[in-house]
Write a structure and sequence with these properties.
Layout: H1 2-12, E1 19-20, H2 21-24, H3 42-45, E2 53-54, E3 58-59, H4 65-70, H5 77-86, E4 90-103, E5 114-128, E6 131-140, E7 153-164, E8 168-174, E9 177-182, E10 190-195, E11 201-212, E12 215-220, E13 223-225, E14 240-250, E15 253-266, E16 269-288, H6 293-317, E17 322-323, H7 333-341, H8 346-360
């Protein structure tokens, strides 16, 4: 029952939130958000998002081999890019830190900063000369009321696909609509496509990697995406998150920094820029706890999710725009697919998954 409850919490609240034991005892005097709005009272600007007590993590201190591999001599630019993308894999403590910094709306009350964290494994599920696919799987251990540590809670998370010199983008248009756009030839670029937990599209952007002075950084062009999970169930004053982002590979992890615009969009046109937001998502390599349960889950369900990806690839291959319904018969798509992924009859489950996806494609 606890696993089901946590899964539902993840689906309906801003995040699967966690706090280490030491952080759970923190007070405003001991821990704060120094970049918050300085003339708004602490209670109004107290960060939200971290409530559940999780087991402690130990961070890796040695430079990961994948980082050193980026800077081997004699590599061409494309191979250096590929190695930077491959260095995003691994076991990480991930922290999510977001704060609004400005607004153009009249009498706008800034929302409190958001902070949360989780532990997850990212691993390569497909790789070729021009393509790399990284799957993220959440693995969390929670501290019970009696002080014991729970069995790991495992959940399929997001996926990112990287394509070299890709000419096609599947872009979010707002209002649960996506459309394909053909790109002009841009040598040396990569597209990064991000997918939801049910492998439905979230956003896709294009950018370039640079490698200089010991830093490997991917800088995107401007793009749109749906509301983040931390806000889609609690905000209705905007409907598109636009902006740019950077991914910086570090010796022991990576940083996903974001400059976001909270937009109100109607019929594909921006009506209002509600607020500007800065985000820093840090992926820090860990040595404990073990996240090996992610591999166990993928061994059991990987073939099912490959069939799901194949179905979505066919949807995206069409030149026609498409829309997705939020729920069908009161059920979200990810809950339906997660249930099928655990089925003992995988042959039937794969067929049913295709029907589920089809039912969510709006006519």
């Amino acid at each position: 029952m606890k696993t089901v409850a946590l899964l539902l919490t993840f689906a309906t609240t801003p995040w699967l939130v966690a706090a280490e034991e030491s952080a759970s005892e923190a007070t405003p005097e001991r821990i704060g958000h120094p970049f918050s709005w300085p003339f708004v009272g602490w209670e109004a600007m107290k960060p939200y998002g971290g409530t559940t007590k999780a087991s402690r993590t130990e961070l890796a201190t040695e430079t990961k081999p994948e980082f050193k591999a980026i800077y081997e001599t004699g590599l061409d630019k494309k191979e250096r890019d590929r190695r930077a993308i491959l260095a995003l894999a691994g076991d990480h403590r991930v922290s999510f830190d977001f704060i609004e910094t400005a607004s153009s709306a009249d009498n706008y009350q800034p929302r409190p900063p958001y902070f949360s964290w989780a532990t997850e494994r990212a691993f390569v599920i497909e790789e070729s000369a021009d393509f790399i696919s990284l799957q993220h799987v959440l693995v969390m251990e929670f501290v019970e009321e009696d002080g014991t540590v729970s069995d790991p809670f495992v959940m399929k998370h997001w996926r990112q696909d990287w394509k070299f010199q890709d000419r096609n983008l599947v872009e979010f248009q707002g209002d649960r609509n996506w459309a394909k756009r053909e790109l002009p030839e841009q040598k040396g670029t990569w597209t990064q496509a991000v997918y939801q937990v049910d492998d439905s599209p979230r956003y896709e952007t294009v950018g370039r990697w640079t490698h200089f002075g010991g830093l490997s950084i991917f800088r995107s062009q401007n793009f749109w995406r749906p509301l983040p999970r931390r806000e889609f169930s609690v905000r209705d004053d905007y409907n598109v998150l636009g902006g740019v982002h950077e991914i910086t590979v570090t010796p022991t992890g990576w940083l996903h920094s974001q400059l976001n615009q909270k937009l109100l969009v109607t019929d594909g046109r921006v009506q209002k820029r509600l607020a500007t937001e800065l985000g820093a998502v840090r992926y820090e390599r860990i040595t404990t706890p073990s996240l090996a349960k992610a591999e166990d889950y993928w061994t059991k369900t990987g073939d099912f999710w490959k069939a799901v990806r194949t179905t979505w690839n066919a949807v995206e291959a069409s030149d026609a725009p498409f829309s997705l319904q939020k729920k069908v018969d009161g059920q979200s798509m990810f809950m339906s697919l997660f249930s099928l992924a655990e089925s003992e009859d995988q042959k039937t489950a794969k067929v049913e998954a295709m029907a589920v996806i089809g039912s969510f494609l709006a006519e």
